[in-house]
Amino acid sequence: MADIQCKQIGPHCPADGSPLGYAPNVAASVIFVIIFNLSSICHLVQGWKYKTWSFMIAMLLGSSSEVVGYIGRILMHNNPYRLSTMLVYGEGIPRVKPVWYTRFFINCDIISLTLQGAGGGVASSATKHSTMELGNHLMLVGLIFQIVSLIFFALACIDFALRVRKYQSWKNPAYKKLRASMRFRGFLWALVVSFMTIFTRCVYRVVELGGGWNNRLMREETPFIILESCMITIAVFALIIFHPGFGFQNKFNNLEYESVSTIEQVGASKEGTSLMTVEQYQRST
């Protein structure tokens, strides 16, 4: 890599000597800015239509972050040395309460993104090689943590799927028709696609960063476009095509918990929990 004191492209500071190793392609970056802006609009419209507010906010934050990132790559085209310009089945089926899946994995995401963001900030403001390496290591730790949490998430989902198949009588009968619909199954497959593409992206970034700033993979833009840009694009649009509001048939935001008797589940009289819609709950009370 060229001297870290390089501030712009020049006779002694070629583009391939920058931390990136290339000048980001403007056309590709513009395309992905448009794509993620479009995804933001789609999620905004669908979130408003289906009133899936929390999901909408999460997807808007993700898409807008991608837009900011690609705008940064556009700005870096002329000077890549300037890095600084940048619950339907049934409550009794899971081994743990559904709410803890959300609490645990959301917190894992926050930790991972914080580490990656901190690492990116340190690397972009670095004035010497050691500081840039520190930023690189922070990002690497964040990505590895994300991969580990994704593996635990996948294992939890697989365990839940196996228990769904094993305990057929535990399923909430109120949602039998919904579970059988192509819209809901499409949503589940969209989650699988999103998981696989995001996991692929994370593995790529670990390999990329693991070799340091002189790693050949780090200094090639084509793998970045395929394994970063395209993977996230697929993940985002899979959840636009099979949006949860569409998949849950307008029931996504209308789920409440109600105590019921679950003798079949435990073989004895015991209080458990099942899901029902708000409308059902109001009619029963």
From TrEMBL:
Membrane-spanning segments: 26-45, 57-76, 138-162, 186-204, 224-242
Organism domain of life: Eukaryota
Cellular location(s): Membrane
Membrane-topology descriptor: Multi-pass membrane protein
GO cellular component, one term: fungal-type vacuole
UniProtKB keywords: Membrane, Transmembrane, Transmembrane helix
Protein name: RTA1-domain-containing protein
Organism expressing this protein natively: Hyaloscypha bicolor E
Lineage of the species this protein comes from: Eukaryota, Fungi, Dikarya, Ascomycota, Pezizomycotina
